[in-house]
Amino acid sequence: MITLEQVKEVFNNLSDNDEEYVYELPYERVGTVVELANAPADWNILVVDTSSVETQYDSYGNGYTENGAVIFSVSDHDELKYFRLPMDYASYDGWSVDYNKLTEAHQVSRTVTYWDAV
User: Fold this and answer.
1) Which of 36, 46, 78, 109 has its CA 20 to 30 A from that of 2?
2) Residue 105's pLDDT is what?
3) pTM for this prediction
């Protein structure tokens, strides 16, 4: 059974190389395999969505992201679960991640209506 606590344990104990890799996850394509040295051998971790990590720019041209997240799946031979890893970005500070804010995620379908000029 894959639990949120197990996933947090993996992310809270990353090697320096794996931590640098996690900071690159917003740039990875959907379906990319995430290889972490301390993850259980039977886990398969994949990037599911990075669309919420959208860079905005201030009046000086400095980029930042607030409330961004990478969604990834963790599967073993028995189950599949999704998790949301919140990530913030600032031009001068780089990426910041608080692994304790990692949560289990569920896909929710929504209907969005856009109005366009005719």
Assistant:
1) 109
2) 93
3) 0.81
